[in-house]
Design goal:
mainly beta, 49% strand
Amino acid sequence: MKKVLLTAVSLTFAGSVFGGEISDPVIKKLYEKGILTQEEAVQLQKDTAKKEIPVSSKSKKLKFGGKAYIGYTFTDKNNGKDEGNFEIRRGYFVTKFFFNKKDHLRFTFDVTKQYKNEDPNQGNEITLKIKHLYLYKDISKIIPATGFELGIAHTPWLDYEEHSGWWYRSISKTFYEAKDGANLLPSADAGIDFKTKTEYFSAEYGIFDGEGYDHIGRKDKGSKGNKPMVEGRATWHILGGGKKKPKPLSQTYGNLSLHALNSFNHRGSDDDLTVYQIHGVYNQPLFLVAGQYIKSDWYKGSENKGNGYSFNFEIRPIMDHKISIFGRYDRWNSKKDTYDRKMYIYGIAWHMNKYVTWIVNGITADYDKNDSKDYKKYMITAEVHY
């Protein structure tokens, strides 16, 4: 109650200041004695109000933000089941509570769509998940330039790639994660994730449950008990900039990364899932080029047992780099031939401001020996950051 009253008094005080009235008794007395002119008294009161108003709030400890991927997709399927839908592809709402300048608790709601009861024949439904719920602790005094996330945390690869090499998550997941790409693991999992960031080198490494945040403890491929996953990434920031996430429309950067993981008895199976990856990206405000190679191994007959590569580019020739023409090519060669596939992504984006990007694009999936899985998508997207 005390804080509410203090806030009300502060706002009333501020209102009288900006209206030109002198309400502070000390400042008013100085004005009446001729020590301050009316103009000086009003200005002093304004300066005092600006400093006093935030006192009643703890807002500096809380940060809110999020993303929304909203749009329309028409899918021309090779099996004849064409469809068009308005979509809320993703909606993230992020809350961070800071204990000090670096240590904090993060909570992320994830609004998305998924097949009802994981059955495509029952159609999609909107669902709410918890994507992140972790404690971040800075341990730079123990390990230089390092901190860790404990809980449902980021995993070492995807957040890095989505903020360096592939900036269009709103229309397609990265090659590493996409269903018609390598179709491997998602970007968060239960575990502990260490982050080391210096100007020319960064690394991320940790121990996780191994199934991803949307299938924690999943054992649908066998009867083995849950075993951990170890995963790590090391990145050489050739031109520097390793301490912060880059700004592609205004900065130049070049990175080379190695990434590997081993998920023991993955999803309850008798076999470990292993992944090895190399990735490179170069960006300047005018253009971006990136490429990667992935090799993975799991049980015999799995679509995840194979290798593949991906290249993507982006050209920003006009309007102070706010118009982007982009494209991507994915190729996955599975040990199970019916899963060999290619994917093409092409489109144009308008970065209207720091909050909204509009995207018009197409996606083509082409399976070498399974034409019924082929499709073409045509998409319009509003990508919102707040």
